[in-house]
Automatic annotation (TrEMBL):
This is Major facilitator superfamily (MFS) profile domain-containing protein. SUPFAM superfamilies: MFS general substrate transporter (SSF103473). It is a multi-pass membrane protein. It comes from Penstemon smallii. One of its GO terms (cellular component) is membrane. Keywords: Membrane, Sugar transport, Symport, Transmembrane, Transmembrane helix, Transport. The lineage of its organism: Eukaryota, Viridiplantae, Streptophyta, Embryophyta, Tracheophyta. GO terms for molecular function: symporter activity.
């Protein structure tokens, strides 16, 4: 596939623009903290005794089926309800992004997240827990819509991949912090779980303050007719006065975007199909790698393998640390090697890791008892190799590529559908994993392996390289030159390349 050298415009990285990148990326930390915190909390005895006493009783029985002791729909709903709320709210977030701007949408995300933290920490009944999760979910829906778009739109093209991946990097940092918090609060009785949930307000507060400091993006200001403010914002984020060439390109894209009155309808014309398909299938694949099953329920999973509660939380910390360090690989390499090479390499490594985990559990972990120490340690290592490869590939690319492949007129609405698809399948995995683990047992890892194989084939045959492609030239350089997707593009005479 063709890879383009980026068109370089005048810019320098100033302290202000770097601060904008970091402060906005706290939206990812907010999301990651929630992913990591829920699994640790659901493994805490004090939490189970208060809200899920039957599960705690089941957990105490040594003869209980290893694979089924956490199989409970309400316990899974505690984790998954957030993603259902994020799914619904992402469409409201898309409208807010377009009408109000990226900056106010980020502010709203932080507000909802802080409210969710307060409600969750104060919970005395299951309905309060679920309501707190829903508030978290609305915050995630707004944040996951606005932050990747914001980062993509303010980044210089030569650094666009690395800047956008800051979102995923902060997701991994959030997961690691959550694992460390859970490891500490797991020893605080009886309210350690309240501390874990309540501390979610900290990244929310940082994002709230950050939303007051960051600038609005030039494309969104132009989209709302604020030409002077857009040019000043571009000068501010580029750190130079001479931004005429880049500004003219953004203006041209914005003018084209104004011709589209119903962006959601525009997404369903034939020529928009490649971007719509790719941005959404990547979300499906990202979830069916099995990564969130591991990250949500890592402590529970390690307890299933025979680790004690404290040891399982420590193992989660180790995987969280691997997750963070490996994401730096993507930050430094994505704009050098491109998106496809990282995705393909990782697909091979993830496939091998999942198959090996499944084989070990199938042959060594029965319904009762536990793995011996050597095999348990090997599973932790394999989980780390899996997490490692995901962290420099499908994790960050799941947010980067959809933010790169839409033209300005459908970018917000197209990305909203991608976010909602991500949340649908995150919800499915969160709600179903513990039941799937109970029924499929070790075969669940072969189930995820099959999906990873399909992902690799998708990259080989259907995914174009987006490295160095200006957003306003995606149709010309991506779709019209791809052997499959060019068939969906209108020719210069207005025909559909033989398509009906």
């Amino acid at each position: 596939m063709t890879s383009y050298e980026p068109q370089i415009y005048n810019s320098k990285i100033t302290g202000y623009v770097f601060a904008c990148w970091i402060l906005a990326a706290f939206g990812g930390l907010m999301f990651g903290y929630d992913i990591g915190i829920s699994g640790g909390v659901t493994g805490m005895d004090d939490f189970l005794i208060k809200f899920f006493p039957k599960i705690h009783e089941r957990k105490l029985h040594a003869t209980e089926n290893n694979y089924c002791k956490y199989d409970d729909q309400m316990l899974q709903l505690f984790t998954s309800s957030l993603y259902l709320a994020a799914l619904v709210s992402s469409f409201f977030a898309s409208k807010a992004c377009t009408v109000l701007g990226r900056k106010p949408t980020i502010l709203m995300a932080s507000t909802f997240f802080i409210a969710g933290a307060i409600f969750s920490a104060a919970a005395e009944a299951k309905w309060m827990l679920i309501l707190g999760r829903i508030l978290f979910g609305v915050g995630v829906g707004f944040g996951n819509e606005a932050v990747p778009l914001f980062l993509t739109e303010i980044a210089p093209i030569q650094h666009r991949g690395a800047v956008n991946i800051l979102f995923q990097l902060f997701v991994t940092i959030g997961i690691l912090i959550a694992n460390l918090v859970n490891y500490g609060t797991g020893m605080v009785h009886p309210n350690g779980w309240r501390i874990s949930l309540g501390l979610a307000a900290v990244p929310g507060a940082v994002l709230f303050i950050g939303s007051l400091i960051i600038t609005e993006t030039p494309p969104n200001l132009l989209e709302r007719g604020k030409v002077t403010e857009a040019k000043e914002a571009l000068k501010k984020i580029r750190g130079v006065e001479d931004v005429e060439e880049e500004f003219e390109q953004i203006v041209a894209a914005a003018e084209q975007g104004k011709l589209v009155k119903k962006p959601f309808k525009k997404l369903f014309v034939k020529s928009a199909f490649p971007a719509l398909f790719i941005s959404n299938i990547i979300q499906v694949f990202q979830q069916f790698t099995g990564i969130n099953a591991i990250m949500f329920y890592a402590p529970v999973l390690f307890q299933t393998l025979g680790f004690r509660t404290d040891a399982s939380l420590l193992s989660s910390v180790i995987t969280g640390l691997v997750n963070v360090c490996s994401t730096f690989v993507a930050v430094f390499l994505v704009d050098k090697f491109g998106r496809r090479k990282l995705l393909l390499q990782a697909s091979v490594q993830m496939f091998i890791s999942q198959v090996a985990i499944g084989a070990i559990l199938l042959t060594h972990l029965k319904d009762s008892g536990s793995l011996d120490k050597g095999m348990a340690a090997l599973v932790v290592i394999l989980v780390c190799t899996f997490v490692m490869s995901f962290a420099w590939s499908w994790g960050p690319m799941g947010w980067l590529i959809p933010s790169e492949i839409y033209p300005i007129e459908t970018r917000s609405s197209g990305f909203a559908i991608a976010v909602s698809t991500n949340m649908v399948f995150t919800f499915v995995i969160a709600q179903a994993f513990l039941s799937m683990l109970c029924h499929l047992k070790a075969y669940i890892f072969f189930f995820f392996s099959a999906w990873i194989l399909a992902m690799g084939l998708f990259v080989v045959f259907l995914l174009p390289e987006t490295k160095g492609v200006p957003i306003h030239l995606v149709e010309e350089r991506l779709w019209r030159q791809h052997p499959v997707w060019k068939k969906f593009m209108k020719t210069t005479d207005g025909s559909n390349n033989g398509m009906p």
